[in-house]
Amino acid sequence: DEPTLSSEDLAAAQSRRLTGDDVRPSSSDVELEVEDLEVAYARLLKVKQSIENGENVPEPDQGEGPTDEDTQDLGRWMAAMLQRQGYIHWWQHKSAIRALALNAFPKIRDQPRIARLSDLLGMLGAHFELERTWAGHKLSHQEHFAEIGSIYK
């Protein structure tokens, strides 16, 4: 079973963008072209469905691999994003950041394209679920701290 994107997920993502709760990191030396999760998910799902329907969907051009500039740009973007997301002392916790990144980008199968697409779709679905869980976690903690604050008034 493939994960599906509910209309509630899409509405929540749209709401975050409109209210500014979905602030994107910025850096003067890094051009940011961030695709939203739901757009990436929809594109992958369309490609997977086309392949399953027997359509000839060519592999994207792989090029010769990332340049040093590509690698440096991603590193600068990552550092700016961590800073913007509140990880203000990230360089003091590199092993934790590496563990988070490894968890965020699990290994996908080195198999035919359909298997890789399935892995990516599953990963994006898991990221949606994590986002929903994290939003609930933050809300429950806010309520907990408000309750504690009322006790000490």
Task: Characterize the main sheet.
Answer: none
Number of strands: 0
**Uncertain residue ranges:** 16-34
Structural class: mainly alpha
Overall pLDDT score: 74
Provide a compact summary of the structure.
The chain is mostly helical.
List the helices and strands and how they pair.
Layout: H1 7-19, H2 37-52, H3 68-84, H4 94-104, H5 113-151
Characterise the protein shown here.
There is one protein chain. The protein has five helices and no strands. The chain has one domain (7-151). The protein has helices at 7-19, 37-52, 68-84, 94-104, 113-151. It is mainly alpha-helical. The model is unreliable at 16-34 (pLDDT under 50). Residues 1-30, 50-73 are annotated as: Disordered.
Summary tags:
single chain, 153 residues, mainly alpha, 5 helices, 63% helix
